[in-house]
Write the structure tokens for this entry.
Amino acid sequence: MDLSYILNELGEDREHYFNAIAPPIMQTSNFRFNKVDELRAAFADEMSTYIYSRGLNPTADILRKKLAALDGAEDCLVFNNGAAAIFAAVLANVKAGDHIVSVSKPYSWVQRMFDIILPRFAVTTTYVDGRDANNYFNATKPNTTFYYLESPNSWDFALQDIATIAAYAKQHNITTLIDNSYCTPLYQQPIAMGIDLAMQTATKYIGGHSDTLGGVLSGSKTIIKKIFDSEYLNIGSGIQPFNAWLLIRGLRTLPTRLERINRTIKEVLAFVKIHPAVKRILYPFDESFPQYALAKRQMKEAPGLFSFFVQAESRQQIVTFCESLQHIQMAVSWGGHESLLLPKCAGLQDAEFDAANPEHQMMRIYVGLEEASYIIADLDQAFEKAGLK
Ligand SMILES: *Cc1c(COP(=O)(O)O)cnc(C)c1O
């Protein structure tokens, strides 16, 4: 399907709302029925019609259609945030006694679900270094029913060979889910590679303006309906109409914003890479990246985020660097208009800092929509103030 068609027309039914270009925000909790039999049919299958906005809602449905098409999937559900999408997807597909194999260092709240919540229901998880697909296969037990992937990881960008892992999982009746937030479906198509459930947080690139949260889960009609009928309706974490509307608006400019970010990040990277205080960078589309070949094979582009390691002698030097930035802001998240930076050592006390541990000297930058020169000048003066040279 044509990308322009998906973003501008698919799912929109303008004749039904006065030919307005922008869709209405259907801010309603419930929908009326004229016939008892229609009501009966709706009760029998909540996915067949509009009945109550904890289930389907017309504004959210426009978004669902577009996002499913972007993922090349039969259907999709949109949640109030990405964490909820993952939670519902995993919960719907495991039962007591099951075992999950997950990539190591998944998104923090996913790790919490695996470590704290699921063990209460006798579901256990083994973490593996996903850079070698064999680690997934070797960790698989007779009761393994779920593989969790995140490729690339959003800090160190470690990749998994998606097609290889998906093929093995299919043979062994194991459900697969990938967190595709870094690439978005524009730059990586996990469903076409055989993954059952493609997840992305819409909070980041789709929203694009740091003003709403959202989470996307795409897959076959069967698996999506299974999640809708129980977890989606029960947890009640579906996207709200106004947030769905903001995400539709964000989608219109998604390719344009990503193209711009792709250009800017290359310029910022070129500056950071040769800076004397920088020991190493991590970016999937840089030739120095250990999994460069795999990245080139399964991703179209590497937008927005890269990490770098500075030659800092103390934690204070990194603190001075971060606090000297005038325009790049220190904040979690990414995907908005604004450039952001996060130092890994934020979790450490001064005394815990070890200049021999590269992790402690690591920072992650998100390159937003500003001019490259503006971002570079800000980094340059902060390096200078921190005595990093
Ligand atoms: C932000 C993020 C999530 C969670 O999404 P929310 O919308 O914040 O709940 C999941 N995975 C990755 C990689 C993220 O960056």
About this structure: The mean pLDDT is 97. DSSP finds 14 helices and twelve strands in the chain. The longest strand covers residues 144-150.
